[in-house]
């Protein structure tokens, strides 16, 4: 604790510190000399391409990937083209940009993933310089070609190449350039001597930095802040200009007094800091510049690389990995010499308390008198988050905890959250893990991304512990990690299918929301089909099992699983797949072994493939269904001969099926069709295709009574049905004379009330009255009421002494015109009730 400020250096009103993160675990004989180096932000991995200038097959460059602590992750000889630049994507994939414009993508472990080209123009004119940048859309690549033109891709996962406008007067490679991201658009800032240009999709716009030193004749280096909000320019006169990236506001300008071009420059502004600052590196020297004229100088023993971060700059050399940053405000307030800030007093109070000194009370009283105890606790908690040494963290948190004891309503969330965060950060900063995140970076990155990074590094136990400790929802945390572990496990060739399947099922038994089909897919892609089938047995959702089984050519099993699920859509999916994949005979044989699938396929064929349905019935010797098929087919054919032929086929099938009723009925249909055709030819009436009922109705309506009666006899139509048909047909024709004759031919099997009703329906009360007398006594009241004969209805009702009929007649009587009749009916009703 006594040496917390030992590595602090003042610059203006702020302090800067250089913290050692790791002593590197790699063993580089020549350090980083003659290496292409790329380090991912947020404490990501480091890629080295040794001897990248070599072009001889006997001495190939070596590509090596390390963790931030220098532990090896991958190493392999580079056998492709000349590499101009290395860089990392937002998801920790390595990009290798070649001289011909081809970009190769590798994973963290050196596994090749894919490649893409930056276009024909780049390929033809070669890559001069390239920059890999991160935009709101993802990871982008910007290339300066040998033709001095810029080509840009803002998202390598969705390649859309943009060729930017030409820079006027550019005869050779620009002295420096950088990619800016403004208003969700990526632009290129180019320096050509002392001139600056911004290139966007449509135009090349000259710009002038406000207040740039007049001594400058050329801009030799530039860098953009991590957030793309700020820009630093270094001129040939040794001046560093700092301002906003839109070049509208100058923040400061500092003379470094060094006029040689630097190796690298990086922005070093902490979020919410009031002071702009940049780091400039030459061979053996590092300078920090800010608002004031003074600078901070650090001497470097080895070749080093600067890695810009959200809240500082990481410095990687052949032996060490360090973090240079502005000292956070809370740390400065507490640890600054002679500080009287509330946090500093609380820390002193706690130290004295541990010594059992009464001075602790004096310090506490001083804080309380100013009502700043809550602020003191907050400062200690915040400062603990910015410290890398666990002992310093503990000291600050103990002081905060001590101060909380004297506060009655201090919310505990900030303290608890910081303790959790620091425990996680200390775990991932460990040398064996090698992710040196600061608390600011951790909050920006989010827990989910950190878990993804741990999973990507195959640190599954640590990822699970972090999920459990931070109480991450299971489907986002433990279950997701276990799924990735299982996908990795099934690719291991050393163990047998049974051992791996058992291990996966045991580990994932209690995990919620895990799809075994995804794990099985990974096993299948790794060439382990039997393991994939075993894993699918654990998948409870058939909808997830079936597609993979089909992909693996396990059609019978897929069909069985689909049927077990009870999901008809899923069964149809499998059946249609099999129909396209298998020959017709094998397809039908497979369906015969699965009655449910066969039944569903028949339903499909009824609507879509009639000929296939016929083949199925033939194969199964299903004569009954074949007969039905021919009958339905006959209705679709307009030609009579074809219809009759199809019906004859149906008759033959019905007899084979020993269904005499259907056979006889079909024969009757054939006779009816022939009769209809004959009548059509003789009388010119359109009859073919009509039913027996409609045929007789049509014949009666056109006066062909004899032909109708012939059908009545030939087809043994019931008497009642024929009488109803003829009765309605004659009434519709208003052939009352024929109707009267028809009524006298013999006793009506339907009675005579229908005669009355059809006459009334066609508004002929006169004809209706002719039949009232023939109506049976039970229907007399209805008949009289139908023709409007109230007296007759009353007589019939009284004669039958039926209370219900009397009430019916009464309800139809009018109180003004039928007064006497109503009295008579009421007396009759009273008599009927007494009896």
UniProtKB/TrEMBL annotation:
Chief location category: membrane
Span of domain Vps16 C-terminal: 514-829
Q: Can you tell which superkingdom this protein's organism belongs to?
A: Eukaryota
Query: What are the Vps16 N-terminal domain coordinates in residue numbering?
Result: 5-416
Q: Could you list the residue ranges forming a coiled coil in this record?
A: none
Q: What does this protein do?
A: Plays a role in vesicle-mediated protein trafficking to lysosomal compartments including the endocytic membrane transport and autophagic pathways. Believed to act as a core component of the putative HOPS and CORVET endosomal tethering complexes.
A GO cellular-component term linked to this record:
HOPS complex
| GO terms, molecular function | actin binding
Compartments annotated for it: namely: Late endosome membrane; Lysosome membrane
Keyword terms of this UniProt record: Endosome, Lysosome, Membrane, Protein transport, Transport
GO BP terms in the entry: endosomal transport; intracellular protein transport; vacuole fusion, non-autophagic
Provide the protein name.
Vacuolar protein sorting-associated protein 16 homolog
Q: Describe, as the record does, how this protein assembles with itself and its partners.
A: Core component of at least two putative endosomal tethering complexes, the homotypic fusion and vacuole protein sorting (HOPS) complex and the class C core vacuole/endosome tethering (CORVET) complex. Their common core is composed of the class C Vps proteins VPS11, VPS16, VPS18 and VPS33A, which in HOPS further associates with VPS39 and VPS41 and in CORVET with VPS8 and TGFBRAP1. Interacts with RAB5C. Interacts with STX17, MON1B. Associates with adapter protein complex 3 (AP-3) and clathrin:AP-3 complexes.
Q: How does it sit in the membrane?
A: Peripheral membrane protein
Q: Which InterPro entries does this one have?
A: VPS16, Vps16_C, Vps16_C_sf, Vps16_N, WD40_repeat_dom_sf
Family, according to the entry, reads as follows: Belongs to the VPS16 family.
- Gene3D superfamilies reported in the protein's UniProt record: Vps16, C-terminal region
For this protein, the record's PANTHER family field holds:
VACUOLAR PROTEIN SORTING VPS16, VACUOLAR PROTEIN SORTING-ASSOCIATED PROTEIN 16 HOMOLOG
